[in-house]
Amino acid sequence: MSSPSSQHYPLKQTLLKWSMNPAGTESLVPDFTGRDAVEEQCYALKGLMVQAGKAQADSENNFDKIILNTLKDAIHIELYLLENVCLWQKKPTVVVNIVNTISRILSNENFEMEPGFLHFLKLLNRIPELLQDSKTALLKPQTIWVEEVINSINTLPTFLKEVATTISGMNSRQMKILEAPLKSASRACIDYKNWLNQKILPNSFDDWALGKDKYSELLSYFYSNQDIDSISEYAEETLNNTTQQLKEFSLQDETRGTNRNSIVTTSFKHPENFQDILNEYSQSFENVKQTMLELDLFSVPDNEKIVVTPTPECLKSFIPFVRLGGTFTKAVNKKIFINGRIWITDPGDSPMMKEHSYPAILNTAIHEGYPGHHLMNAYIQISDNPIHKYICQNFSIGKGVEEGWAHYAETVMVASKIQDYEKIEYTQLKNMKWRAARAILDIALQVEQMPVEQAISRLNQTTNFPLNAAKREVMMYTQNPVYLLSYLFGIDQFNELRSKYVDNPSNSMSIKEFHINVLRIGNVPYESMDKILEIQHNQTIAKGG
């Protein structure tokens, strides 16, 4: 990505000032908790919209015009979420903000060094203020979300102590410095919990669902060519089809000469202990990366790697399975190094052990690593266009694209018949069934106002998730309307782009060029991606390519 023109300098400075560097900077501590902060954010976004509009009008560069228009669209969606969806008025989001900030600090590979300690200390000192400020935001608290936060804040003081132990590495001097802020934060947590219990919960509401009109409007921002009825029909059809395909996997396949029942059986085999699980993940990330490069369908930036790490004790309740903690850069001797951190939570003897089956681990390595989330993040990290980079890292508009890309990446690798591809194919079918259920329940909860308990039961029956895992899932659905559709629809968008630029005989873009271009463009909306791909294609034609 080329840098934007010099005429965008004021806009670049604004974005750089706003940027939150997940590797840890002075802006890492969240301010976005109280009513005043939300209003200030809306005001600032509207000012940024004006700057982007002026820069777009002045620009003569087609790429700049597309990126600046994408920025305007991203701001428009963000304002709609803040001013119309208004989750901040309905749920005490401060606890999630604190936990997510700590997760970013711990995900940085240097978290045990001085910068990590200082960022945690700064956050710890601000927790009483953040909790107090957040009280001004709850204008229409919702019962299910208030109850959820009351339960989670019970564990926050212990969580903070565990983080302190982890981040200080048992350094007695640092632990002494953290003592007073920990006590102050713990007292503030108790005060906040009592306030929620006594003042907020008795007067809370039960009308958290968006309703058909707001859901349809939000849907139009992300999927302008879809409506609620067509999505519901497609999701139900996908659920039925994948259910049938999973049944067929247990039958003898004469044409392929493969006993698919053995594939089904293998899909439940897993490493015997947690250390073996960690080793298997590490090896799988290396294997899929090497296979991906041998297939010559993708490329990888220089000096890039993934580190597999056990989830710290303090984060286990927030990461029940596997998560890409983040993809970070650091400069050493003028070289840029890109590191991804994958958290793996020890399942112990719980039913979650089966979720770490060999095919599931391999599929996760593709989805989270190569060529999925981490690889796209790695290309975004080295973008030299601050406007493009800021959109990819900070706005809701591109989040669904990430999931669409990771799902597309899974199918590309399986279609290339990588080792054990049939076993992964079975795992992917199970995942597709889950993705279809997500879309169905998203609409049922937000539009049809299905009771939460009924949604939990249906997810449990559809996916065989344990009830506690199904409950965590459904609670997440209630707070992320429309976003979950990307797990189902995202792959279709990438297949359409591929059909247009690769499969079409009149175009000359190779499959590898398509993949690299998409990775460099990153998680911008599909419409913007299409326009940028068209510019790149036309430039290639003009050069005689």
Description:
By secondary structure, the protein is mostly helical. Among the domains are: 6-203, no CATH class; 222-270 and 367-486, no CATH class. 65% of the residues lie in helices and 6% in strands. It is built from 23 helices and 5 strands. The protein has helices spanning 9-18, 35-58, 62-85, 87-90, 94-107, 114-134, 143-154, 156-168, 172-200, 212-222, 228-248, 260-266, 274-295, 358-369, 373-381, 386-394, 399-415, 421-446, 452-463, 467-478, 486-503, 511-521, 526-542; strands at residues 252-253, 258-259, 304-310, 322-332, 335-344. The protein has a 3-stranded mixed beta sheet. It has a two-stranded antiparallel sheet with strand order 1-2.
The end-to-end span amounts to 19 Å
The fraction of residues in strands falls at 5-15%
Give the C-alpha Rg: 24 Å
Major sheet: order of its strands? 3-5-4
Assembly status: single chain
Mean pLDDT: 84
The major beta sheet can be summarized as: 3 strands, mixed
Order of helices and strands: HHHHHHHHHHHEEHHEEEHHHHHHHHHH
The total count of strands amounts to 5
Structural class: mainly alpha
SS summary, helix count: 23
Overall outline: globular
Parts with pLDDT < 50 across at least 5 consecutive residues: 1-9, 16-30
Helix percent band:
55-70%
